[in-house]
Amino acid sequence: MKTAEIRQRFVDHFVRHGHEVVPGAPLPFDDPNLLFINAGMVQFVPYFTGQLEPPWSRAVSVQKCVRTLDIEEVGKTTRHGTFFQMNGNFSFGDYFKEEAIRMAWELSTGPVADGGYGLDGDRIWATVYLDDDEAIDIWRRVVGLPLERIVRRGMADNFWSMTVPGPCGPCSELYYDRGAAYGPEGGPAVDEDRYMEFWNLVFMQNERGAGPAKEGYEILGELPRKNIDTGMGLERVATLLQGVDNLYEIDETRPVLDRAAELSGKRYGGESGPSAAESAPDDVRLRVIADHVRTGLMLVNDGVTPSNEGRGYVLRRILRRAVRSARMLGGEFTDGAVLPQLLPVARDAMAPSYPELAIDYDRIAMIAYGEEDAFRRTLASGTTILDVAVREARQADRPALSGERAFALHDTYGFPIDLTIEMAAEAGLSVDQEEFRRLMAEQRQRAKADARSKKSGVASTAAYRELREHGPTIFTGYESLETESRIRGIIRKDELIEVAGPGEMVEVVLDATSFYAESGGQVADEGVIVIPGSSGETRLRVLDVQRPIKGLIVHRVQVESGELRTGAEAVAQVDPEWRLSARQAHSGTHVVHAALREVLGPSALQSGSYNKPGYLRLDFAWSKGLDQRTRTDIEETANRALRRDLPVAVRYMPLSQAREIGALALFGETYDAEVRVVEIGGAWSRELCGGTHVSHSSQVGALAITGEASVGAGVRRIEAYVGLDAIKFLANERALVAALSDLVKVPPAELPDRIESLITRLRNAERELDRLRAGQVMQQAGPLAQRATDVAGVQLLTELVPAGVAVNDLRNLAVNVRDRLDQSRPAAVLLASAVEDKLSFVATVNSAGVAAGRSAGELVKVLAQALGARGGGKADVAQGAGGSPGDAPAAFDAVREALLKTS
Fold it and tell me: Which string of DSSP letters, residue by residue, matches 625-694?
């Protein structure tokens, strides 16, 4: 049974039992505790916790998930994958344990002809939480499962949470016995390769606090209602129904594995047993490739781009692990590209379930292939740095590379630790992995602490949730800039207060507001909230507006005058100039996006944006920089759209209808069942958007592109001004051109040619000066050679030459002097020159000196140490920089002493 069919049977089964189909959310979910959705219930958290009233009593979904905590175990077990799909059915205060267990058993064991999976009920085991006698009774009484196949397990195994503060509860898991070939008998507590977990039924009734991920955390109390959250691992059920050994061999991943084996010349499974513990190293690498290529495909499809932090770093690591694993297999992967060979295979395998992969593949490929190209360059530079580290360790007679050096390679250059270990082993060295792991752990702790300092999780939103119980904040800003309202609540340091006085900074929630909360790339409105009073008005300056939980708009304000009290009548007044400029910028962003697609093609899709009054920036998928002609075309296309005075229309419709008419959605955004579609000129620009806009394109005014640059592999960024800011920018540009014209005495039209001519003349003059300077320097070679003295059998010259000699000239002079000395005897030349109060220095040793064991690199190190500088190099030539010119004589003496000691 194909994975796509398993997925559909699950949905159909629960639809027949009264569940509403809810689309899965994008992988990069907007939750401060998570980088990616890691469970099927994540998008339903507000309904479980009571923040929002659920629109359905029963729901079913298929959710894309990514977990990377066990990334090192990928390929080594049957059950660890970074990307997976979780089929889930949910009850929000409707049915509970008995119906959840019964429906799971019916689908699992029901005949294939009747829409079930046809699993053998005699091979299914169930686990329950330690004291959950009710669940045990249901398994025995309702299902008929014998007591010997029901196992009680502790909190770490059978009490479920997202590992962070939020909903939780006891659970009951379903396991399938795959037979003696996969491990010893005895049930899930004995072996989880033989007994594969495929479904987890969570009885969601508690809320957890902070603490360890799996057990030992505080239970804060009961949820407002008893809920059901189940997760059936789609890949695991496919493993069982397709009769394969592990999830890497199912129909959605095996094609990538087979293609990688073919290109590398390996035979998958030839040296491995059915259990993952019996896997040969090459088979593990093939599974890593199959898993990671698919995960990379799905992450890029959902709008993630490679970077050095957060979600982008996870994607970068996954893609690079895939490429590295392929290169370790050899064959055509040794020097050839990996992802262009494998990513299309993953696309074809996943497209039956996710058709958008085929539609959007050009953008996906552009980003993924660009990241592989960047990694190939990293491998080249990282290998060079590693070679230096290995050489230094050997020279110092150290048996291992330090964990600090391995961490620097990993953190700064993206060099994989497994590659560092392998290459060090080839050189006869080990790596201090304990120190590396310690440094990695410290980095993770710093990142977590930083995240905690910037954002709050579910446990810290109590004040917002209490205010949200009185209903959502009504947003009136589409229709009006001024709204009469009431102060629903005042928050200071996460606590509700009744009164705030002049000068205080607090958060305010109104029943209704005209202030736009920051979202969709548009910054929040500015303005004031005025509270009339008999003794004078209270005036609040609005500094920021956010939506910390769904349905609630929160204003961060400073009390400028008067006393702020909960329950007071108020008037929200948005600054009209601010809103006008913000509308121009947001509509301008849509116009630039449409112009990009018109000039570059449909694959130039927006991947992020930011706009504030008068300014916009837009990130889009593209693999190379835009030349001036292309930038001009985009700018002209955008301004023609403004001049045409295109109507800007807003329509509300079901998400499915919006997709049918081609409305573009921002990658990574989560949308409700009904969406807001903003159209400029009808189909010319049609996007899902909640922002504020002008009513006609001409109201944007002018648009001037100010810059375009790379912000990551396969992602470019355009910046522009709109309205008065665009006119001011163009005026400044015109003034600059006029000033240059006056300076070089030519009309503006002739400026490019004149400046090019001046630059050419300047470069020619600099080359001539360099030639003359080098000639003057070389004239010193003869006299300097005559000053060489014998030190421990070495013809040695140490000299501080006149200041200002460039390092290349200094090196050439040192070599020239060396070559004038007796080549039958060891010779060493050390020269230094002051450049801007710092020394540049060079050492060179002739062939006879190298043969006698003398090294320019070692001499430079002695010199650098004496100067408090840095330096290094090869045995024949080395160089360094740093230190004070006044310290040169003493440093040269240190070199002479080093030669005498080693003679």
Answer: PPPHHHHHHHHHHHHHHHHTT-BEEEEEEEHHHHHHTT-B--TT----SEEEEEEETGGGEEEE--S---
Tell me: pLDDT of 670 over 90.
no
Q: Which residue has the tokens 């890497």?
A: 248
Whole-angstrom Cα distance, residue 870 to residue 862?
Answer: 10
Residues with Cβ within 8 Å of residue 376, at least 6 apart in sequence: none
Rounded CA separation 510/574 (Å): 14
Strands (E), 121-218: 124-129, 150-153, 159-161, 166-177, 195-208
Q: Which residues pair with 291 in a beta bridge?
A: none
pLDDT band at 448 (very low <50, low <70, confident <90, very high): low
- Which ranges in 145-280 belong to alpha helices (H)? 155-158, 234-241, 254-264
**Other Cβ atoms within 10 Å of 737 Cβ, number:** 13
Whole-angstrom distance, CA of residue 611 vs CA of residue 619? 12
Give the burial string for 481-490 (b: 16+ CB within 10 Å, else e): bebebebbbb
What own/partner pairs with CB < 8 Å and gap ≥ 24 does 851-856 have?
851/826, 852/793, 852/794, 852/826, 853/902, 854/794, 854/826, 854/828, 854/899, 856/828
Q: Which residue matches tokens 């295109």?
A: 646
Burial class (CB in 10 A: 0-12, 13-18, 19+), 28: buried
Q: Which of 173, 169, 161 is closest to 226 using CA atoms?
A: 169
Give residue 501's pLDDT: 92
The three-class DSSP label of residue 31 is coil
pLDDT-derived band at 439, boundaries 50, 70, 90: confident
- What pLDDT, in 10s, does the model give residues 481-496? 999 999 999 999 889 9
35-44, 575-584, 663-672, 689-698: which range is least confident on average?
Answer: 663-672
Note the pLDDT tens digit of each residue in 114-165: 999 999 999 999 999 999 999 999 999 999 999 999 999 999 899 988 777 8
Q: What is the CB neighbour count within 10 angstroms for residue 526?
A: 18
Kindly report, residue by residue over 810-839, the tens digit of the pLDDT.
Answer: 899 999 999 999 999 999 999 999 887 788
Residue listed under structure tokens 């396969």? 714
Q: pLDDT tens across 838-877, in order?
A: 889 999 999 999 999 899 989 999 999 888 888 888 899 9
- Measuring CA to CA, which residue among 730, 697, 709 is closest to residue 591? 697
Closest CA to 320 of 438, 183, 415: 415
pTM assigned to the model? 0.70
Element (H, E) at 802: none
